[in-house]
Amino acid sequence: MINCRNVTRLLSEAQERPLSITERVLLKLHVAMCSGCQNFKDQMGTLRLMTRAYAKRKSDHDE
């Protein structure tokens, strides 16, 4: 089974590259059982949305 350290690494890598089917399955199983990793995944999603909104607002302002 995959541990929390590897889950957080894979969640970060998923922002840069497509994960394999095996990696995706392992992540889903682990996150379903681990509230800490679920929180980390949710926080990463929130941060991604916030940074995209900031970048869009900044680029709209610069035009």
Count of the domains: 1
Helix content: over 70%
Rg, nearest Å? 15 Å
| Global geometry | elongated
- As a percent range, the share of strand residues is under 5%
Mean pLDDT metric? 92
Helical/strand content category: mainly alpha
Unreliable residue runs: none
Give me the strand/helix succession.
Answer: HHH
Total strands: 0
Largest sheet: none
- Determine the N-to-C terminus distance: 49 Å
How many alpha or pi helices? 3
Describe the protein in words.
- With 63 residues, the chain is mainly alpha-helical.
- The protein has one domain (4-62).
- It has three helices and no strands.
- The protein has helices at residues 4-13, 21-33, 35-62.
- Helix 1 (4-13) packs across helix 2 (21-33).
- The protein starts with a helix and ends with a helix.
- The relative contact order is 0.14.
- The mean pLDDT is 92.
Task: Describe the structure concisely.
The protein has 63 residues and is mostly helical.
Descriptive labels:
63 residues
Question: What is the element layout, followed by pairings?
Answer:
Layout lengths: L3 H10 L7 H13 L1 H28 L1
Helix pairs in contact: 1-2, 1-3, 2-3
